């Protein structure tokens, strides 16, 4: 018996060594943790249950028969994060560069199937050279099996991808179909084809970092939602994100104990909006003033900064926030900000996360670049996402809500439940100056007359009361009581239920 137990221990030890000490040292030398060390940081201590530790590939060509490593380059199983169940896979770069073989894919598919059956999220730690070249089409088939599952479970369980090394080819498409992508700065890359292929095909000379590093994907492409300095920090932030999310689409997000008074008054908000409409202010101040303990997890912070998206808690309950940011491009809607916010709204709606929308928007950004880029279609994504959302929705207009952007930003008309405005709100088809110049074009030569017309327009329209008179705004509230009013609104909406018409699926303007 003892011999059998010892044999098990030695098989386990062999599997835990992955591609060998030399490659582990190389991984550490790059500032990266190993696949198992990463799981130790991500999961609660001692909670990891590993599956398929002894699985090996079945390939024989290209000398593969002699290159079998137990586990086949991916560590899979389940564990807990702050006591809540999560299924995980962690690719082991020390084994054939974490490349995906047929059996490697089967291991990932197994835990994805278990996750969806048991209603728990999947977190994938990606560190892979892509399809295992020696296995050819068997490896491509393995990828496709993973892709299909990513699509099938989308909206059923949250899926989070962490990019922790080079991810090329097929290794980027599975993350792209998940809900959130976090990257590690300076050690992770995502590209469909690497710099060498780019040079051959397009003659462009580009480094891996420029082509697919964390900066590129968080600031330019918006493929990734956040980036952090090292493995440990990134995994800690994944834990933080996980805590905001429900385990699946039939459960509510977790409720955390809170020590922040929901009735907290913030007098400084009464002077947040400057006297001049042309002056910006930082909408983040309002977001933090509303949040329990001022805690806000921003998603896609570095991209389309004219809109902010992220999670906070009110009375311990998760709320998704979409907020125009007047500090950047005056908070206008454009292609990038519409796409960013639409994606966020869809996620929140799929997972029963109530939505808070903070509005200060001068309209859609004009110009040929926007029109040629399809701002109509992209703006429609946000309009569509809000119009379809059935989660509790509370909207607060702080200042401008002009034109189509007023409609889009969770107006009453497209489905928001409670719409508040500060007394400083200006709800109109457009700003006073633009409106007067169109309405009184024949008087443009007479400056005094135009100034008087502008003042008249301002008096009539640049306030929240025209909308409030029609019931489009439920109440004009004092800025200092925003947290209290919003907390009460969400509390009253906790039982919201909406019947939707049967359909196979919508045809969202993708
Ligand atoms: C098999 C691979 C591999 C792969 C890396 N290795 N990628 N083995 N298949 N795809 C092995 C290497 O041979 C090496 O083995 C070890 O992993 C480490 O690789 P290095 O090149 O030494 O590491 P590094 O210099 O850090 O470079 C990492 C890398 C590079 C950037 C990922 O290895 C690379 O470019 N790999 C190929 C990427 C690629 O083109 N993949 C196929 C994409 S096509 P030893 O034994 O020396 O340790 C694809 C199609 C799917 O994925 C499409 C679906 C839509």
From TrEMBL:
A GO BP entry: carbon fixation
Q: Which residues form the CoA carboxyltransferase N-terminal domain?
A: 1-257
Q: Name one Pfam family in it.
A: Carboxyl_trans
Q: Which GO terms describe its molecular function?
A: acetyl-CoA carboxylase activity; propionyl-CoA carboxylase activity
GO CC annotation: acetyl-CoA carboxylase complex
| SUPFAM superfamilies, sorted | ClpP/crotonase (SSF52096)
Protein name, per record: Propionyl-CoA carboxylase beta chain
| Species annotation | Allomesorhizobium camelthorni
């Amino acid at each position: 018996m003892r011999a059998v137990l010892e044999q098990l221990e030695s098989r386990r030890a062999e599997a835990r060594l992955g591609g060998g000490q030399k490659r582990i040292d190389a991984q550490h030398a790059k500032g990266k943790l190993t696949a198992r060390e990463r799981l130790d940081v991500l999961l609660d201590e001692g909670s990891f249950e590993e599956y398929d530790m002894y699985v090996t590939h079945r390939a024989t060509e290209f000398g593969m028969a002699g290159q079998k490593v137990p586990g086949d380059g991916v560590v899979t199983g389940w564990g807990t994060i702050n006591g809540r169940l999560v299924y995980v896979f962690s690719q082991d770069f020390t084994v054939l560069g974490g490349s995906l073989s047929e059996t490697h894919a089967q291991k990932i598919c197994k835990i994805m199937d278990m996750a969806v059956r048991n209603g728990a999220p999947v977190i994938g730690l990606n560190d892979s050279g892509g399809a295992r070249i020696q296995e050819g089409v068997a490896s491509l088939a393995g990828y496709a099996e993973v892709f299909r599952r990513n699509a099938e479970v989308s909206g059923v369980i949250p899926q989070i991808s962490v990019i922790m090394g080079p991810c090329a080819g097929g290794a980027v498409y599975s993350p792209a179909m998940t809900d959130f992508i976090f990257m590690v700065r300076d050690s992770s890359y995502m590209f469909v084809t690497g710099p060498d292929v780019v040079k051959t095909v397009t003659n462009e000379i580009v480094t891996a970092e420029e082509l697919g590093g964390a900066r590129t994907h968080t600031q330019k492409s918006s493929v990734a939602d956040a980036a952090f300095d090292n493995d440990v920090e990134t995994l800690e932030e994944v834990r933080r994100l996980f805590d905001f999310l429900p385990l699946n689409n039939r459960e509510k997000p977790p409720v955390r104990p809170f020590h922040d008074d929901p009735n907290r008054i913030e007098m400084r908000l009464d002077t947040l909006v400057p006297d001049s409409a042309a002056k910006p202010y930082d909408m983040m101040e309002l977001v933090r003033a509303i949040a329990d303990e001022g805690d806000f997890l921003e998603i896609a912070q570095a991209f389309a900064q004219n809109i902010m998206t992220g999670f906070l808690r009110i009375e311990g309950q998760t709320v998704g926030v979409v907020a125009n940011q007047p500090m950047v491009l005056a908070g206008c809607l454009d292609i990038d900000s519409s796409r960013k916010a639409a994606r966020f709204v869809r996620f929140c709606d799929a997972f029963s996360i109530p939505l808070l929308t903070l509005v200060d928007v001068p309209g859609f950004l004009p110009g040929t670049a926007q029109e040629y880029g399809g701002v109509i279609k992209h703006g429609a994504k946000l309009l569509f996402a809000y119009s379809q959302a059935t989660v509790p929705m509370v909207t607060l207009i702080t200042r401008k809500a002009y034109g189509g952007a007023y409609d889009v930003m969770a107006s009453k008309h497209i489905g928001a439940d409670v719409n508040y405005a500060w007394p400083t709100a200006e709800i109109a088809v457009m700003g006073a100056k633009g409106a007067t110049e169109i309405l009184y074009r024949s008087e443009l030569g007479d400056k005094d007359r135009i100034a008087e017309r502008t003042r008249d327009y301002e008096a009539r329209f640049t306030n929240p009361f025209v909308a409030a008179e029609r019931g489009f705004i439920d109440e004009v509230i004092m800025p200092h009581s925003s947290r209290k009013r919003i907390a009460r609104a969400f509390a009253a909406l906790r039982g919201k239920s909406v019947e939707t018409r049967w359909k196979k699926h919508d045809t969202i303007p993708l």
